[in-house]
Design a protein that fits this description.
Blueprint lengths: L1 E2 L9 H13 L7 E4 L11 E6 L1 H4 L12 H14 L5 H10 L22 E2 L3 H7 L4 E4 L4 H4 L5 H9 L4 E5 L1 H5 L16 E9 L4 E5 L9 E4 H8 L6 E4 L1
Parallel strand pairs: 2-3
Antiparallel strand pairs: 1-4, 3-7, 5-10, 6-7, 6-10, 7-8, 8-9
Helix pairs in contact: 3-4
Length: 244
């Protein structure tokens, strides 16, 4: 699967997400308690909301992508920054991808802009190779390969990985989370995965997933209703690259 890294200018999705959060998250009433998840956090009891991850700490490592098709590289740079405190620049991560052979296809992970087929993007499965350059071990997994990789996927897996302090990049459909008409579709007419973002938190009280989304100028700590995120993520068969 490929992330073409669609770049989107400033938009109003944050307002929409906030309205959804009010609808979904406050339905439990004023007695809702929000707790920060710890490693091994079980399902919370009734009336308790859990925040998995630390979106506020992750937000400073978000950067807007200047190229139209380097969302994978920018997501990797974000994760490197979260783990090391020093994120590589867009120029540096793109240059690395241009000079690193792809484990999943012939040629480099990223070809020079202007010298490639339109929309070819970067394979989600190449994310671990880029992270390895910075000494970060990670695995790419999805619903079809979870048994082989030993890395489960799905929202519950996201929550537990975040509670353990792991970082993850997911493949999804950009237009769905941006609430725009879907342009990239499969041969069956279904939305196709075309974008990579970093999941920085899951808030069960507000009913939202927190993202660092390099494709939007409003993408630092972007908040998407969980059901919309699940629908968008399903386009990649719940693909994610998770650090170990």
């Amino acid at each position: 699967m490929i992330g073409t890294g669609i770049a989107r200018r400033a938009r109003s999705v944050g307002v929409i997400a906030l309205a959804s959060a009010i609808t979904l998250g406050l339905a439990a009433g004023p007695s809702m308690v929000i707790a920060q998840a710890a490693p091994g956090t079980p399902d919370p009891p009734s009336g308790v909301g859990i925040l998995y991850g630390d979106p506020q700490a992750a937000a400073p490592f978000w950067h807007y992508q200047e190229y139209d098709d380097d969302c994978v590289e920018m997501a990797v740079a974000d994760v490197v920054g979260e783990l090391s405190g020093d994120a590589p620049s867009e120029h540096a991560i793109v240059r690395l991808a241009q000079s690193t052979p792809s484990p999943s296809h012939h040629g480099p992970i990223y070809a020079k802009p202007g010298k490639r087929r339109a929309g070819s993007g970067t394979s989600f499965d190449d994310e671990p190779a880029l992270l390895a350059h910075y000494g970060i071990q990670a695995v790419s997994t999805d619903k079809g390969s979870a048994k082989k990789t030993g890395a489960p996927t799905g929202v519950k897996a996201l929550e537990q990985d975040l509670a353990q302090g792991r970082k993850m990049i997911v493949g999804l459909n950009a237009e769905l989370i941006w609430r725009e008409p879907v342009e990239d579709k499969t041969s069956d007419g279904e939305p196709e995965a075309n974008h990579a973002v970093v999941v920085t938190g899951v808030d069960t009280a507000a009913g939202v997933v927190h993202l660092n989304d390099s494709g939007s100028e409003d993408g630092a700590n972007e908040q998407i209703p969980i059901d919309l995120f699940v629908r968008s993520w399903d386009t990649s068969d719940d693909q994610m690259t998770v650090t170990s």
